[in-house]
Amino acid sequence: MRKLRGKASLRLALGLSALLIVFSLGAMALQYRATAAELERRERSLLAADLAGLAALYDQRRIIALRQAMEFRSAAAPETGMLYLLEGKDGEKLAGNIDAMPEGLTPTPGEIDATDPVNFTLAATPYLGVARELRGGFPMLVARSRAPTEAALAATRAQILATALVLVALSLVAGWLVSRFIMRRIDRLNRLADQVAAGDLSARLPGPRADDEFGALERHIHTMLDRIGHLTRAHGRLSDTIAHELRTPLNRIQGKLDKLEGDPEAIAAVSSEIRGTVRIFDSLLEISSAEAASGGGTGLVPVSLSQITREVTELYEPLAEEKALDYGAVLQEGCKLLGDRNLIAQLISNLVDNAIKFCRAGDAITISLEEGPERHLLCISDTGPGVPAEAREAVFERFARAERDREVAGHGLGLALVRAIATRHGAKLRVLDVEKGFSIEIAWPKLPPDMG
């Protein structure tokens, strides 16, 4: 049922099928009513014709002729399904094929006509008839069996039910087939979207394009991806060129400063600024390199996430002790994945370094690694100043710095590099909602079983 709720195409197809069924059943109901009305009109017409003949004889020769006609017609009554009865003033049977007036049926004074016929049942058979009391006190009954009409209506109902069942079955099958056809086309687009989301801007849909709305959409998506790829490559080339071109003159300036004699403090300050600028460009190049490789498995090999995390944790332990931080780690062994060992170590180092940098004496830093149902979960939490909820997504942008960062030196590229490395490995970043401090969770994809 959950899968049914989740497929809009199937719901749409079934909805249209249901609408078709409702309209079809409505049309069948109207046709049934029209058939029933026509059969009833025919019954009344035949009954009226029979009564008209008897009325003509009665007008000419009164009771004698009416009695003779009823006796003659009663002989053929079993084939025609007719009831006839003519009684005398004292209630004795004068003519007809039944012995007495049916129970509950009272003749009304009047002429022999089909005005206001009544429905009644005799011996489990339904009838439509007219009961009159003729002048002189002679009760008379003429009725026509409704059994053929009821049988015809029953057959019509059975046919409508069978048609409805077939229509429902065909509609469900048609809805399912239409849904499958639409979902195949949509799944193609979803697979392409997943590849692009994973960083593969060169991904394209295979096969020829159909000459329909889906084909037009696929062509438009390809054109859009071509344009995005072109702009991304141009942006990457520009960033790389700027970084490369500026690093060289900065390094030359640094070399010349090292040879200068003068105010050591001034030279050291300028040298420090230059080295900081070079590190910015190095970080930009590293981010560009990681982003360029996103979505591909080239260069990734089986590595132990547990071992890398433990090594980085131990590396920063002296620095945490120096700042009097409550520093600890709970790491599950055996967590492996496809990755670049150096990049993963850099990601963890950036997060731990940030936590130590912003925490004050007495704050706590906790590093945990556990194997989840589908992914390895690495969580780095601290009880430092934290980041406002509205700024949590922005801290992963290049050169983004939260309010807490103003008092600490930095260039705002550390978390941007973290995101780029995570994307490179297909990992998912999530900033956790904690009461105090900053907590980030990275969900790493597990090593495929055939590579374990």
From TrEMBL:
<keyword id="KW-0472">Membrane</keyword>
<dbReference type="InterPro" id="IPR003661">
    <property type="entry name" value="HisK_dim/P_dom"/>
</dbReference>
<dbReference type="InterPro" id="IPR036097">
    <property type="entry name" value="HisK_dim/P_sf"/>
</dbReference>
<dbReference type="InterPro" id="IPR036890">
    <property type="entry name" value="HATPase_C_sf"/>
</dbReference>
<dbReference type="InterPro" id="IPR005467">
    <property type="entry name" value="His_kinase_dom"/>
</dbReference>
<dbReference type="InterPro" id="IPR050428">
    <property type="entry name" value="TCS_sensor_his_kinase"/>
</dbReference>
<dbReference type="GO" id="GO:0000155">
    <property type="term" value="F:phosphorelay sensor kinase activity"/>
</dbReference>
<dbReference type="Pfam" id="PF00672">
    <property type="entry name" value="HAMP"/>
</dbReference>
<keyword id="KW-0812">Transmembrane</keyword>
<feature type="transmembrane region" description="Helical">
    <location>
        <begin position="160"/>
        <end position="182"/>
    </location>
</feature>
<keyword id="KW-1133">Transmembrane helix</keyword>
<dbReference type="InterPro" id="IPR004358">
    <property type="entry name" value="Sig_transdc_His_kin-like_C"/>
</dbReference>
<feature type="domain" description="HAMP">
    <location>
        <begin position="180"/>
        <end position="233"/>
    </location>
</feature>
<keyword id="KW-0418">Kinase</keyword>
<dbReference type="InterPro" id="IPR003660">
    <property type="entry name" value="HAMP_dom"/>
</dbReference>
<dbReference type="Pfam" id="PF02518">
    <property type="entry name" value="HATPase_c"/>
</dbReference>
<keyword id="KW-0808">Transferase</keyword>
<keyword id="KW-0902">Two-component regulatory system</keyword>
<protein>
    <recommendedName>
        <fullName>histidine kinase</fullName>
        <ecNumber>2.7.13.3</ecNumber>
    </recommendedName>
</protein>
<feature type="domain" description="Histidine kinase">
    <location>
        <begin position="241"/>
        <end position="448"/>
    </location>
</feature>
<keyword id="KW-0597">Phosphoprotein</keyword>
<dbReference type="GO" id="GO:0005886">
    <property type="term" value="C:plasma membrane"/>
</dbReference>
<dbReference type="Pfam" id="PF00512">
    <property type="entry name" value="HisKA"/>
</dbReference>
<dbReference type="InterPro" id="IPR003594">
    <property type="entry name" value="HATPase_dom"/>
</dbReference>
